[in-house]
Design goal:
The protein has 385 residues and is of the alpha/beta class. It has helices at residues 22-25, 40-43, 46-54, 71-83, 95-107, 183-201, 209-231, 236-249, 263-275, 279-293, 299-308, 317-334, 348-360, 374-383, and strands at residues 11-14, 31-36, 58-62, 88-93, 133-137, 149-154, 157-162, 170-173. Helix content is 46%, strand content 11%. It has a six-stranded parallel β-sheet, with helices on both faces. The protein starts with 10 loop residues before the first strand and ends with a helix. Bound molecules: 5,6-dihydroxy-NADP and zinc ion.
Length: 385
């Protein structure tokens, strides 16, 4: 196992009908800004219930954080939060709203040009202060509710925002709030969570038994409850397990002390930035083709994945690996996700565009060993066509 520090201060409030406890989580004298997206949270009554739970506290609302949140929108929210002397931010939504809120919490105190917050990548931002924030999750997918990451779109590119100051203080995970999700968003969420686990698991063995077995447990759970949640709005037991799987997939625990390979995410982000394909969907398209291309580098873990996640025990090594990858792709397809770029009208010219944008972003040495260059990215994309 590799050395690691594990830090996760977010309090999780999990379960149905617990939103009244919001009152105990935020200081009574705080002025709260409730931040949400394009309207689903208002339309389905979640904002009303949040307002009620906050009682007499001073509060303002900011709506209109779009999927793949835009820098300009978030700067408007930042100005409003500053003008209104807000001292607590409450995100009500999915990954985009939670990520956007993290950016606002830093931008409110950042003295220089706010876009600089986006340019420090995984080294973390040079910020020293953030407004405290909490989340009410309406879409299980990103794990943003319990991590220090955010992704913001600036000049048509997706940039990371990373700071330990932006861990939410608390997150409410009530599966009831997810019942209004369109099927397509459930599919995206399942794919996103599944790929988060894969990218912290399918690398090379480091004898990290706890992390491996936890990852396998989360993936097996998603294989069970993903299709159920996709098909059945009322299966609350499945929905609860889906929700906790998504948080567990990216709250730092399974990723501590193991190598990571975020190549699928890096390629996927570019597909979203250039062609607007939803985040989870881009990952489901890329992952199977990336695994086929990287079979040799990932051989040992792919065999473990075939055995322990898919119960594949028969056949040669090559056959077991191929079967596991095919089954992974079929799983995404069973959630209504087409895993072919041509379906999204992306041709070879489009692929060249993706590769050249990745070069501009400096994404030229990907994978757990940084040996996955743009030539291989192109090969993966061509095979996914
Ligand atoms: O905007 P509204 O009207 O609320 O509609 C949203 C949005 O259109 C809708 N929605 C959310 N909850 C709903 C609902 N509709 C009905 N009922 C509900 N309960 O769903 C749509 C998509 O929402 P969004 O927040 O964009 O989706 P998701 O949670 O998948 O977040 C995607 C964003 O997260 C980033 C992605 O890059 C992308 O920008 N990521 C963040 C990560 C992190 N913070 O750790 C890691 C991820 O890998 C990812 O990159
Ligand atoms: Zn993701």
């Amino acid at each position: 196992m590799l050395d690691f520090n594990f830090y996760n201060p977010t309090q999780i409030v999990f379960g149905q009908n617990r939103l009244s406890e919001l009152d105990q989580m935020i200081p009574q004298d705080s002025k709260v800004m409730i931040i949400y997206g394009g309207g689903s949270a208002k339309k389905y009554g979640t904002i009303g219930r949040v307002q009620e739970s906050l009682g007499k506290r001073a509060k303002v609302e900011f709506s209109g954080v779009e999927p793949n949140p835009q820098f300009d929108t978030l700067m408007k929210a930042t100005e409003m939060a500053k003008n209104e002397n807000v001292d607590f931010l409450l995100a009500v939504g999915g990954g985009s709203v939670m990520d956007g809120t993290k950016f606002i919490s830093l931008a409110m105190h950042y003295e220089k040009e706010a876009h600089e917050i986006l340019f420090f990548g995984f080294e973390g931002v040079p910020a020293t202060k953030a407004t405290p924030l909490g989340c009410v999750v309406t879409l299980p997918a990103t794990g943003s509710e319990s991590n220090m990451f955010g992704v913001v779109t600036y000049n048509n590119q997706k940039y990371p925002v990373v700071s330990p100051l932006t861990f939410p203080q608390f997150s409410f995970l009530d599966p009831e709030f997810t019942k209004t999700l369109p099927q397509e968003q459930v599919a995206n969420g399942v794919a996103d969570a599944f790929v988060h686990v894969v990218e912290q698991y399918l690398t090379y063995p480091v004898d990290a038994r706890v992390q491996d077995r936890m990852s396998e447990g989360v993936m097996r759970t998603l294989l069970e409850v993903g299709p159920t949640t996709y098909q059945d709005n009322e299966d609350m037991a499945a929905r609860k397990n889906f929700m906790w799987s998504a948080t567990t997939a990216l709250n730092g625990l399974i990723g501590a002390g193991v190598p990571h390979d975020w190549a699928t995410h890096m390629i996927g982000h570019e597909l979203t930035a250039s062609y607007g394909i939803a985040h989870g969907r881009t990952l489901a398209i890329i992952l199977p083709y990336l695994l086929r291309e990287r079979k040799n580098q990932k051989r040992e873990k792919l065999l473990q994945y075939a055995h322990r996640v898919w119960d594949i025990t028969e056949g040669s090594e090559e056959e077991r690996i191929d079967q596991a990858i095919d089954k992974t792709e079929s799983f995404f397809n069973s959630l209504g996700i087409v895993t072919k770029l041509s379906h999204y009208n992306i041709d070879e010219k489009g692929i060249d565009n993706v590769v050249s944008n990745m070069e501009k972003m400096g994404l030229t040495a990907l994978s757990e060993t940084q040996d996955l260059g743009l030539d291989t990215v192109k090969k993966i994309l061509i095979s996914a066509m």
